[in-house]
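As noted in the main text, all predictions were made from sequence alone. Below is one such record, for HMA domain-containing protein.
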Amino acid sequence: MADLQIVPAGKTVEAQYVEMKVPLYSYGCEKKVKKALAHLKGIYSVHVDYELQKVTVWGICDRYDVLATIKKKRREARFWDCEESSSEKTPSPSPPLMERAPPLFKGEKN
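Prediction:
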């Protein structure tokens, strides 16, 4: 019962693609990811691209359930589109440097 997904009756249900960036260190990792996703209901296919470190899932599923399942095997997994939006952000300005450091000891003279 734990791997069942509940879909509200009022919504139209369509198959969707879920793309994730998943760190894969070997071809054994690829097998682990495929096996973990095989237990989810409604998944039609799983494609793992080892060179791009990308996993594409197609099926009737909730994308957050798919990500949670992947994170059980690879904690650093995230959605593919989140990577693009984070690279567009501008870096925050660095805090101003102190002109002179305060003395370390109470009796120290500068």
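Residues 45 and 58 are 5 Å apart (CA to CA). Helices lie at 27-38, 63-73, 80-88. These features were considered when defining construct boundaries for the mutagenesis experiments described in Section 2.9.
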